[in-house]
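Example record

Each entry pairs one chain with its bound ligand, zinc ion.
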Amino acid sequence: MSKTLILTDRAITGPATQVIDDAAVLVDGGVIAAVGRAAELDPSVDISVPRLRCPGATVMPGLIDCHVHLAFDAGPDPLRTVAHADPHKLAAAMAERAQQMLAAGVTTVRDLGDRDALTVALRESIASATVSGPRILAATTPLTSPGGHCGFLGGEVATDDEIRTQIARNAKAGADLIKVMASGGALTPTGPRMWEPQFTADRLRVVVDEASRHGLRVAAHAHGTDTIAECVAAGVRTLEHCSWRTADGIVYDRAVARSIVENDVAVCRCVSGDWRLFLEQLGPGRAEAMTKVIQDMRADGVRFIAGTDAGVPGARFGDYAGMLEFFASLGFTHAEILDMATVDAAEALGLTDTGALAPGLRADLIVLDGDPLSELDALRRIRHVFAAGRQLSL
Ligand SMILES: [Zn+2]
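Structure tokens for the complex follow.
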């Protein structure tokens, strides 16, 4: 790979309050070699290096989707589809979905549950540049209780020993992290209800301890208010959904929120790009309760990271910007939203080499028309995507 000098009206280097006007970013192979003002950088870079001149544009870190399911097809019944899919066809479909995400500016995805560790194979193909796509962090098979949420993926565990065995199996398959279905979920109506726990507090600790013995972090699917508290106490690193459900509706617990903040646990409050339809289906009362707890968490200092849950019904691949607009509709500033999608996401995922523009980091970056700090819609006008320095022109 060769060098490219990208010249734009501005660079958002990350966090989003850090902006350079008339910016230049030098990409050298797979990494960022320099970031600065064009007036200084342009004359210092050899004339033979190609210039990518993008007037009116912003360059910023590539986006990170912290919650996807590449094995699911976003159709009405992804479970059945994934269970019956031919592995070769499924692998091809997953590669196609990964490319859709890359075209939307997503240069890193965290896959939180697949079949047969197919994401690990795709991760390797992308890493070796056999196919193009975002970098993948793969959870492989999620741990769940017998008959529990997404048990069809093969991760049902009933005892401490079974937990240890499944985690060892995932680690051997190449998992980058462990996903535990700590509470029930909507996709599995025959399992526990969404607010009901699937594991005891002790068992959640076994999951976290065993994962950490393998050097892996834990992401917990947690809808129930009690389950959220137990996951934080057990030491999970990210809470997926975190919707504060109880048998009596949504109940926010400020003391638990405080422990989320104190333990530096990030919340991935997944919504799809089609969130307006989702809110409509919930009805005004429940939609308001659902959004109110997000605002409560924000007011209490909880750190959010961005995820679409792409692959579940209605959550299409490649509508990342739509998901971010949901947070704008709740009053989050554009700078906060961009950080959720970049620096904060990278940090929560334990990635120290992406999520910002700085010398030495991976060249994961996007060039878009306009300025997303003043107009979020600019994220729908992506001109160029670089993933580990490899350019995708749109
Ligand atoms: Zn999910």
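The pocket of zinc ion is lined by residues 67, 69, 112, 309, 312 (CB under 6 Å).
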